[in-house]
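HAD-IA family hydrolase
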Amino acid sequence: MTAVLFDFSGTLFRVETTESWLRAVLTGTGHRLPEPELTRLARALEEAGALPGGTAPKEVPADLAGPWAVRDESARQHRAAYTGLSRRVPLPDPALHDALYERHMTPAAWTPYPDAPEVLRTLRERGIGVGVVSNIGWDPRPVFRAHGLDRYVDTYVLSYEHGVQKPDPRLFAVACEALGADPRRVVMVGDSRAADGGAAALGCRVHFVDHLPVNRRPDALLPVLDLVV
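Structure:
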């Protein structure tokens, strides 16, 4: 294998909990709520699927079904879809919905999985190209930089920058071309069989990991190193 492609959310990084997300925004905007109310609102936001990278919506409202289906094809659609879900939950101040969306794009909202630094560093040492291929509506490069991992990534192929979202094989093809790699000698690592499995159409090998909290997934990325020996 000459290159490895990684998904971002749920693969290399995990977003904070919905309660942490809401608490940070409330604190940053000077809002104070009793703990039971904060917990209730966090639970409602989680059920709505309002946190990008978090729990999927239990049900997408009919009026958001169209935007939701193509949410990762542009920054505008991504914001509209997620703030639309957030607004299903009444908050103390309507401005909090946009503040929540802004929060999720900050490095503080994301934590790398424990083995991500070791795996990325080892791939670099072995001369293996690394790309990040993500269905996303914003630029995660600052997250990688803040956590010291950008130095190990050779290319980022982001759905909103190309107007195409996984599993469309065109997104994986762009990454392979950027790395100068034959897709048949590339591994795609991701947490979504539906989305990341699209790389198989190009001939890539696909390796899946579980989308779990950071403290429950300490070493799921390490087997990737055995695939590129």
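The two ends are 8 Å apart (CA to CA).
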